[in-house]
Specification:
29% helix, alpha+beta, single chain, HIT family, subunit A, globular, 7 helices
Length: 185
Amino acid sequence: MDRVETLSETAAVGTPDDMQRLWVPHRMVYVQDHHQPDRSDCPFCAAPARSDEDALIVARGETAYVLLNLFPYNTGHMLVCPYRHISQYDEATPEEVAEIGALTQTAMRVAREVLGCEGFNLGMNQGQIAGAGIAAHLHQHIVPRWASDANFFPIIAKTKALPQLLGDVRASIAAAWPVDPGPAA
């Protein structure tokens, strides 16, 4: 009969082994069913009714708001959403379009200041066929980028390593958000 070795026989706690681990405690919310929103609810309609910390909101405007993406492509991945439940950009009012643009510009300035990013990917996926994860509610992606933010994890292991927890990123971006985000000087 084969002998089974226990952890205490092969290695002490904390001794390195050949297993690579990513510690992502904020993902626990997706494991625990009782913390997930009902799939019939629109998370972008529900977010403004929650506290900024719980909803990961970094700034609120008159017609739109900014929050961190729960499934970020990179650290500081923000979304700009109108409060109104619309699905397409051409359904937005001129006021919503203007505020989405102004909030996007402010988010970029704050991300450069707080995160030191070197570039951005901006975009809107319009409709499920175009890749929108939540197609029913318009949202613009602001993805900070760095020269060294790509590695083999997403390609080989389908894993994205994020160096900061969402709550910490939200707090630093919200704290740096200007009270009056008017045009750049």
